[in-house]
Prior knowledge:
three-stranded mixed sheet
Amino acid sequence: MHNRVGKKWEAVLQQLRTEIPEEQYNRWISSLELREFTLSNVEIAAPNSWTREHVERNYRPQIESAIQSVARRPVALTINVAETLSRKEEKRIEPSPEDAAFVEQLAGTQKLPPSRWSELRLNPKHNFENFVVGNCNRFAHHAAEAVAADPGKTIYNPFFLYAGVGLGKTHLLQAICHRICQNNPNAKIAYLSCEGLINYYLKAVQHRSLGNFRERFREVDVLAIDDVHFLESKTEYLQEEFFHTFNFIQDSEHQMVISSDRPPNEIQSVHKRLTSRFGAGLVSALEKPDYDTRLSILHHKLSLLDKPLPEDVLAFVANRITSNIRELEGALVKLVGFSTLMKQEITLEVAHEVLKDVLEEVPVPIRINDIQNFVSDHFNVKASELQSKKRSKSIVFPRQICMFLARRLTDQSLEEIGYYFGGRDHTTVLYGVDKIRKLAKTDTNIAALLNDLTKKLMKRP
C-alpha cells in the first residue's frame, strides 16, 4: 500500500482511538483493513460478516467523520468482508456436529438459528396503523403508543404486556419497535423472541463469547423480548444473565418491552427477583375481543385483502369465532380464498360449509323468539303482530329486520325462519333478507340499528 495512503489510514485510526473506548476499539476497529483510499472513496474490510454488521450498525458515523476530517472532503465509505476469508474459515463460524449436539442438549428440543447471529425481523404489517382498537385492548394500545413516543423516559418501564394466544401481543410489541424506528432511525433496537435470546446465549456459551452477547443486548436503546415465559425451567445461569442484562438496561434509562402469555406473578420457575422487576413498570393485558371489535377486525382485514364479502357473512363469522384474532383472520382468508379459487360468491350457506371445521358452538343459542322480542320492543309493536298476516309498513319493516337477524345469527334455514313468521315461504324470507341487506349498504342508520340489535342479542342473559 502506498505510504501516504497508509499514513492517512493511521490518522483515521488515531482519531477513532480518541473517540471509542479502548476495549471496543480493540475488539471491533483494530481488525479492520484498508483496501482503498482515493479522493472519492474509501474501502475497508472486516474479517467476517458479523464484525461488518456490528461496525455498520454502531461505528459507521464515527468512521465516516474521521475519514472526512483526514481527507478534508466528503468521501464515500464502503465496508466489505475480507476476500481472504476462505470458505473453510467461514465454515468454522458454524458449530461442529459435536458442538451442535452439546448446544441441543442444553436447549432441549430447540433448534438454533440458521446463521450465527441472525435476528428476528419485524413484520411490516405489525404496526399501529393495522392494530384494530376496541374495549378489549384500548388501554394497552395507548400505553404502547406512549412507550414508543418516548422510550426509556416514561414511568412505563418496563412495559409488560400479556395475553393469550393470538390476541395481538406480538403485533403490539412490534408496533412499538416500528414507531421508534420511524421517530429515530438511529435508535438501537433489539427485538427477538425469548427462544431466540436463549439460542444466542447458548451459542455464546458454546463459543466462549459471553462478552459479545452482553455487548449485543446491553448496548441498545430498546430491548423487546417476546414470550418471556419461555424462561421457565431454564438454567440458573441463563436467568442470572438475563437479570443482569435487565438491570443494565434499566440503569441506563433505556427501554424494556416484554410480552408473555400470563402476568409476571404467574410465571413459574423464574427467580422472584426477576418477575418482580417485570411487574415494576406498567403491566397491561389484552383481553379477548368483543363482538364489535371482532367485526371491526374483519372489516379491516377485508380492506387489506381488497375482496368484498356480504355484511351478514362477516357478522356470522364474528359471532361464531370468538377465541382469538388469529383464528378470526384465518377464517376470513379461507372464505376469500374459497371465493377466488372456486369462482363462487360467499353466502351464509357457503360460509357455514367452508368454515364448519373451525366454527365454535354458540354457548347460548340465539332463538328467533329472542330476536322477535328485541325487535318488537325497539319498534314498539307486538311480537304476535310480526307473526301475523298484517302487511302494513309499520309491521313489514320490523318483520324483515327480524328475518335478516335470524339469518345472520342463527343456523335456521329460510323455510324454518318463515315458519316463525306466520308460515311464510322461503322466497318471502329471502326477499326480506336481501332488502335489509341492500338498505344497510346505503343507509348508515339501518346499518347502525342492525349492529346495535346484534350487540344486544349477543349480550343477553
